[in-house]
Amino acid sequence: MLVFFVGYVETGKNKWGQKLAKELGYDFVDTRIIMENMSGYEYGQLLNDKNLYIQLEQEALEYVLTLENTVVATSELLPCRADNMDRLNAAGRTIFLRAGLGCIMMKVSKQKNNIPLLRGVDTDIVPDFITMELKNRNPHYGKAHYIKLSREIRMKGILEFLNR
Q1: What are the mean pLDDT values of the chain's consecutive 10-residue runs (164 residues total)?
Q2: In a domain, 164, yes or no
Q3: Whole domain around residue 86: which residue ranges?
Q4: Contact 96, 144 (CB under 8 A)
Q5: Total structural domains within the chain
Q6: Angle between helices 50-64 and 31-39 (to 10 degrees)
Q7: Which one, of 10, 26, 15, lies nearest residue 92 by Cα?
Q8: Rg (Cα) of the chain, in Å, rounded?
Q9: Which CATH number does the domain housing residue 84 bear?
Q10: Residue 58's CB: how many other CB atoms inside 10 A?
């Protein structure tokens, strides 16, 4: 089985993906790391070249769709392109870790310069930037099989969802 964690930056996709993989005895992969390994570039550098980013993102998607018994943390953008979210849903179980602006801002304010998506965004407009991003992306993420606020997610709930 494949399990995909989708959502915006700093919602816990990696943390919960790793925990779930350990709990299930599955492998864990992050599509951002796959993209870095394919290209030799850091994720933040990839965001500077839209065409290369999209190409690598699709290659990472094709790769993870061949895996078995794996938990996948997707990049923030992957579920939002073309029919990618539909493909994730068809290939496995999808979990959207949803978070509001306040929750995301608490996390990103401490490390804005370490979040590639927010580099170069003026500090004064980060809240508006994130609000617009969530407005554009949440409809894609919202197609997931299981939607939970990131602050309310629990292993028991995830396992119950997967065993349905």
Answers
A1: 96 97 98 96 88 94 98 96 96 96 86 76 91 96 97 96 95
A2: no
A3: 2-159
A4: yes
A5: 1
A6: 120
A7: 26
A8: 15
A9: 3.40.50.300
A10: 14
